[in-house]
């Protein structure tokens, strides 16, 4: 487990492709074909993330469990620890608005896209809060999620490639610390 992380970190440090969000046209970004909500449900651990703004106090042990409400809606049961180590729990409701695309009900102008997932191991997820007039994104959101607290280099690379094809600067991804605490 620890060595998988180490390898992934080395890959991050030396696989420097500094993509720029503002080169990909949002409408051209490839998302997961034939998205299957049922297979996507369940627990995902956050392994890497990048947001359009700086966060000084990142969460640890962040994961969420997706539970179906009906064919177009699901709820995300979020668990994590604040920077000080305090646990938090939060439910967020989502609506599916198209293949691989969903929105937070209470924050509907910030869609999430599943760029790539094999459902069993990893997911690369994308979001854009602000679109430039030329159709590109002004700093995107991106995440790599795993079904486990760690992930193999193979699955990490698949997720990383998906983020790179959406012009996410993967060299700037931040790692979510997953401890052994539940
Ligand atoms: C789109 O516009 C942004 C902001 O003006 C700019 O930084 C970016 O280079 C442009 N991208 C393309 C592909 O023209
Ligand atoms: C699915 O659930 C949502 C949220 O509870 C509700 O607004 C929507 O009408 C439901 N859709 C169907 C098809 O039942
Ligand atoms: C998930 O990863 C395991 C281990 O590498 C592999 O055997 C399995 O086929 C993967 N699942 C899918 C759906 O690709
Ligand atoms: C993930 O963890 C589960 C149980 O903890 C294990 O059965 C499975 O093999 C693991 N999958 C991978 C890809 O490591």
Q: What would your notes on this structure say?
A:
It holds the Pfam family Lipocalin. It comes from Lottia gigantea (Giant owl limpet). The chain is an alpha+beta fold. It has one domain (2-175): Calycin beta-barrel core domain (Lipocalin). It contains 3 helices and 9 strands. It has an 8-stranded antiparallel β-barrel with strand order 1-2-3-4-5-6-7-8. Strand 3 (73-81) and strand 4 form a beta hairpin. It is globular, with a radius of gyration of 16 Å. It starts with a helix and ends in a 7-residue tail after the last strand. Mean pLDDT is 87; it is low at 1-18. The structure holds 2-acetamido-2-deoxy-beta-D-glucopyranose (4 copies).
The share of residues in extended strands comes to 35-45%
Give the count of structural domains: 1
- The CATH level-2 architecture is identified as Beta Barrel
Query: What distance lies between the first and last C-alpha atoms, to the nearest angstrom?
Result: 17 Å
State the helix count. Answer: 3
In total, the number of strands is 9
Q: Uncertain regions: pLDDT < 50 for 5+ in a row? A: 1-18
The fourth-level CATH homologous superfamily is: Calycin beta-barrel core domain
CATH class (first level) name = Mainly Beta
Largest beta-sheet characterization:
8 strands, antiparallel, barrel
Small-molecule binders? 2-acetamido-2-deoxy-beta-D-glucopyranose
SSE order: HHEEEEEEEEHE
Q: Which range best describes the helical content: under 10%, 10-25%, 25-40%, 40-55%, 55-70% or over 70%?
A: 10-25%
Secondary-structure content class = alpha+beta
Shape: globular
The Rg value, from CA coordinates, equals 16 Å
Using the coordinates shown, work out and report the CATH topology: Lipocalin
């Amino acid at each position: 487990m620890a060595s998988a992380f180490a390898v992934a970190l080395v890959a991050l440090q030396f696989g420097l492709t500094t993509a720029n969000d503002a080169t990909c046209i949002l409408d051209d970004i490839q998302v997961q074909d034939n998205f299957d909500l049922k297979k996507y449900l369940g627990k995902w651990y956050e392994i890497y993330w990048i947001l359009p703004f700086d966060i000084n106090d990142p969460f640890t042990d962040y994961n969420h469990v997706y539970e179906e409400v009906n064919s177009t809606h699901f709820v995300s049961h979020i668990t994590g620890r604040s920077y000080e180590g305090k646990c938090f729990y939060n439910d967020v409701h989502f609506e599916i608005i198209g293949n691989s695309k969903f929105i937070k009900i209470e924050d509907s102008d910030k869609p999430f896209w599943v760029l790539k997932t094999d459902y069993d191991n990893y997911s690369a997820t994308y979001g854009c809060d602000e679109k430039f007039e030329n159709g590109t994104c002004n700093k995107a959101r991106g995440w790599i999620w795993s079904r486990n607290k760690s992930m193999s280099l193979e699955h990490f690379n698949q997720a990383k490639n998906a983020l790179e094809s959406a012009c996410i600067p993967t060299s700037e991804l931040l790692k979510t610390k997953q401890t052994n605490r539940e």
